């Protein structure tokens, strides 16, 4: 039998959905190109398959968070811009240059490192400059922008490809922080040498034309995460997660399931066990919350989610047999519902997806 036939769990990644989502975003952002943010292994879907599919569709700008992530996909993206969002770590300058990976410079110290590398290379080196407009994690402060404006030689040898900022609350369309950041970014970027600009993440694209720029940087929406929470999801789901029933057993009233006996049967109950646990990124916070779907019906998750196993109440599904598939994420069990049950967001569910699933990649 093939691995797919014997697998205990299957994660299906639909590249045609990822590409369709990219095209949807391209249509919604006519002001400039739409990059593919493929950090964290393309949000758990697999950067090695997602990045080439987007490249094939015409995407020519990519971002990861770490240099190591960029190095892994650089050979798959000929001719494309590849940027590292988390900034330039001292000692990695030559590696960036050797592999044509563009640092996103977020402080005067990082700018100095890249300027020195340009001097060593005797060439102008491309960079993206990150301005902090409210996230307060990375990016030039207002004082650093002022210092750059006062001393343009600090940018000697640096070819500014883009100047960018990152929105704090883009998924909340009514949050005044959005407009505040937009205006602040415009004012700060105006003080720097002329360069293309980049503002919107996935949700930012849906904030309307004021948030359009020369480069949008969506990640989440490519992978089917709803960029407009509370409204119908305009993106296509790209992930399906299913697991086989490993065992079924009957419990008498009063008997418990799992570690610490956090759930007890109130009636004769039938418990289904699957080989997915928190080591697979199936959140422990789903303990006694959430559900799986079989044949259109819902099976409540009962007991603790453990490292390798999770249990469901199948009492109301007498047709369920050992070997049948439960849907954990998919058309009948949207990612948003899983995230809500786990008291987290869709991003965390996807990026946590583990390595033990049998992965099936549907082609673009
Ligand atoms: C992760 C990230 C993005 C993509 O954000 P999504 O909400 O996933 O679209 C864009 N820009 C920066 C700086 C990021 O860190």
Write down the overall geometry: elongated
pLDDT average, as an integer? 97
CATH class of the largest domain: Alpha Beta
**In sequence order, what are the helices and strands, one letter per element?**
HEHEHHEHEHEHEHEHEHEEEEEEEEHHE
Radius of gyration: 24 Å
Terminal CA distance reads 26 Å
The count of DSSP E runs of length 2 or more, i.e. the number of strands, is: 17
CATH fold naming of the largest domain:
TIM Barrel
For the biggest β-sheet, the strand order reads 2-3-4-5-6-7-8
How many helices? The count is: 12
CATH architecture of the largest domain: Alpha-Beta Barrel
Number of domains: 2
Give a list of the ligands: pyridoxal-5'-phosphate
The CATH homologous superfamily of the largest domain corresponds to Alanine racemase
- Main beta sheet, described? 7 strands, parallel
Low-confidence segments: none
Share of β-strand residues: 15-25%
